[in-house]
Amino acid sequence: MYLPLLWQVVLAAAWVVSATTPTPTLSKRRNAPTRFVTTQDGQFKFNGSDLDFVGTNAYWLSSLNTDEDIDFTLGNMSANGIRVSIPENGTWFQLISNGTLEINNGTNGLQKLDTVVRLAEKHGLFLLLSLTNNWNPRPLFENSTISIQARDVTPGTNNSLPRGTLSNDYGGMDVYVRQLGTNTTKAHDDFFQDQTIIDAFLNYTTQVVSRYVESPAVFGWELANDPRCNSSIPSTPSCNPQVITRWHSTVAAHVKTIDPNHLVSSGNQGFLCTGCPKLFPRVPPPQTSATPSRRRAVVPKPLTKRKILEDRKAAFKRTRNAKKRTGGTSGGIRIRGRWMSTETRRQDDQGIGPAFDGSQGIDSEDIINIPQIGFGTFQLFPDQNVYGPDDPNLPAFNNTVEQGIQWIRAHAALGALFGKPVTLNGFGLVTQANAPFFVPFNSTQAPFGPDAAPAPTPTQQPFGVTDAQRDDAYTQWLQAGLQSGLQGMLQYQWSQDNLTAAVGTVVSPTVTGPGTVPTVTGIGVSPNDGYSIQGVGQQQVVDTIRQAAQAFGSDALL
Ligand SMILES: *[C@@H]1O[C@H](CO)[C@@H](O)[C@H](O)[C@H]1NC(C)=O
Ligand SMILES: *[C@@H]1O[C@H](CO)[C@@H](O)[C@H](O)[C@H]1NC(C)=O
Ligand SMILES: *[C@@H]1O[C@H](CO)[C@@H](O)[C@H](O)[C@H]1NC(C)=O
Ligand SMILES: *[C@@H]1O[C@H](CO)[C@@H](O)[C@H](O)[C@H]1NC(C)=O
Ligand SMILES: *[C@@H]1O[C@H](CO)[C@@H](O)[C@H](O)[C@H]1NC(C)=O
Ligand SMILES: *[C@@H]1O[C@H](CO)[C@@H](O)[C@H](O)[C@H]1NC(C)=O
Ligand SMILES: *[C@@H]1O[C@H](CO)[C@@H](O)[C@H](O)[C@H]1NC(C)=O
Ligand SMILES: *[C@@H]1O[C@H](CO)[C@@H](O)[C@H](O)[C@H]1NC(C)=O
Ligand SMILES: *[C@@H]1O[C@H](CO)[C@@H](O)[C@H](O)[C@H]1NC(C)=O
Ligand SMILES: *[C@@H]1O[C@H](CO)[C@@H](O)[C@H](O)[C@H]1NC(C)=O
Ligand SMILES: *[C@@H]1O[C@H](CO)[C@@H](O)[C@H](O)[C@H]1NC(C)=O
Ligand SMILES: *[C@@H]1O[C@H](CO)[C@@H](O)[C@H](O)[C@H]1NC(C)=O
């Protein structure tokens, strides 16, 4: 079977906006200027100075139809996370067919990525390049032998619209599993455990990574978008956080041998497992050399189940007392609906919750301590994940904001504990205006789209926050990130209009539903999977990001 696709890149180009003035103590030990981003004492360094960034993400960039569009978008500047799709005329980087791999280094292959990298250099942007994607729910073609159903692409049905989401046929781990897995029963974790697949992925990694070893535009490598045990193909019971940590260790070491110039990161969503054994246990740092980073005054404590539960209890007590003082009403009546993919939606308040109990198959604490991992990563998408129990004394929106702030602080503390920078690689809230476009990360359907089934729970409608709430939440999260010592934050996702439309690509003139909406024949907008800022308060979001960037001490290029 010919499966004409493979790959998914999340290229997050940040405008790296800040080169803050080093403190006197730091300037003494300033590095000689380097061409690449490095880390020192838990801080990103570039060209002899500290580096922090605020940016955004636009995964569709390298599948644009013309170089001018890429130039225009990069020049317009939004930072970009790219997803490479393989539509009919689109870009593809690797073909896995009948058990063999073929790298596409032609003009619709890696040369397209070359263009993105070259133009990023031209515009002074950094790119964070992701090597694969966890999600790929359904292939275009059915295979009854291995019980894999094809995605429904029948015109007029729920799945007919090109939503442009991460989950739609952008290749990824499950394509390797389907095509190369040696077991007859295909399992998602074959990607992490089957030596044939590991070898194939390392081979591919070699070819892509070696291409950009000398590029100053590459901020670093991301091993995968959202690696974890579950995906469209179930995992075997043997999949657990240690399996995925071990995979990270193997691949990170491999990338470092090919490209010693650039940092390597995970790309995982930041899920933790407080009770898991560690492959890379923490060695307590010497007490004398407290981290000199300017925003990290407090020596962090390890994250334990007991501490998390105690902190929550104390926070609930504070809000309860505050509520009593102010006379009761929690203010705000609208219940924000949340799309939830699992039964773990409602946690027993005594439990530690799915973000901390290892149930996602990821222990980002173990991963950040892998020697070749240069910095920690996490994400914040409250519409799709549960980050803590709701505080009964707070309105729904405040719970969303507050849980995000606690999540940010927990990860900043983890970075401080291990002496590595941490970046929030994606954060976003679905607004009411965007609800019809929203496609959950491992789905191909828009649950609130015009072609969706009637909402099962009408009280939760309209889904999403208001634009003003989104701006409020983004501002509070960016502030929390700044204050707690995160060194990078990327809003998800950028959008761009005035792009050249072409049949069969992500900017298509033939599509009339949510996804890609052309404005004029031949002109289209970038895909929207529910987090785009196109037409829904774009300027406010841009302003919020710019202000945060300025707070980092420099001008944003917006
Ligand atoms: C279905 O999968 C099996 C097992 O991997 C493979 O041998 C067969 O060629 C596949 N069939 C098609 C139509 O792709
Ligand atoms: C590095 O710093 C030097 C000295 O401040 C400056 O002249 C140069 O433009 C910087 N290079 C880059 C790539 O920022
Ligand atoms: C639209 O895109 C074209 C080609 O990239 C560019 O020349 C033109 O300036 C853009 N128009 C606007 C209004 O931004
Ligand atoms: C950036 O894109 C927006 C939206 O398409 C457009 O309004 C704006 O003019 C562009 N800015 C530049 C500098 O091209
Ligand atoms: C793009 O795809 C369409 C539909 O398959 C085809 O007619 C057209 O020739 C292709 N264009 C290019 C440039 O490959
Ligand atoms: C797949 O590979 C096998 C063995 O290499 C070969 O016999 C077969 O013809 C190939 N099938 C296709 C469709 O290329
Ligand atoms: C490695 O990649 C090369 C070039 O695409 C290909 O020819 C070779 O078969 C690959 N090797 C393996 C083991 O996948
Ligand atoms: C593409 O790969 C082939 C085989 O490895 C090589 O001969 C060719 O020079 C490459 N072309 C480009 C443009 O990189
Ligand atoms: C193959 O499947 C068996 C049974 O599910 C499992 O125990 C084994 O780990 C799998 N092997 C690989 C390489 O995935
Ligand atoms: C999405 O992921 C969840 C687990 O996080 C899983 O239970 C669900 O079946 C997945 N849905 C699809 C469509 O893959
Ligand atoms: C809830 O959030 C809103 C908006 O940020 C804020 O004005 C209000 O004080 C918060 N309410 C509580 C009880 O914290
Ligand atoms: C979409 O799916 C729902 C059921 O999930 C169904 O009620 C609805 O009719 C479908 N819409 C279309 C256009 O097929």
TrEMBL record:
Extract the signal peptide range: 1-19
Species this protein is from: Agrocybe chaxingu
User: Pfam family of this protein, just one?
Assistant: GH5_mannosidase
Give me the ranges of the annotated region Disordered.
343-362
This protein's name: mannan endo-1,4-beta-mannosidase
Coarsely, its chief localization is: secreted
What general EC class does the enzyme of this chain belong to? hydrolase
Instruction: Give the reactions, separated by semicolons, that this protein catalyses.
Output: Random hydrolysis of (1->4)-beta-D-mannosidic linkages in mannans, galactomannans and glucomannans
Q: Which family does it belong to?
A: Belongs to the glycosyl hydrolase 5 (cellulase A) family.
Q: Which Gene3D superfamilies match?
A: Glycosidases
Q: Which GO terms describe its molecular function?
A: mannan endo-1,4-beta-mannosidase activity
Annotated EC? 3.2.1.78
Lineage start: Eukaryota, Fungi, Dikarya, Basidiomycota, Agaricomycotina
For this protein, the record's InterPro entries field holds: GH, Glyco_hydro_5, MAN-like
Q: Could you name the Gene Ontology cellular component terms for this entry?
A: extracellular region
**Glycoside hydrolase family domain span:** 110-282
Sorted alphabetically, which keywords does the UniProt record give?
Glycosidase, Hydrolase, Secreted, Signal
Any one of the GO BP annotations: mannan catabolic process
Compartments, as annotated in UniProt: Secreted
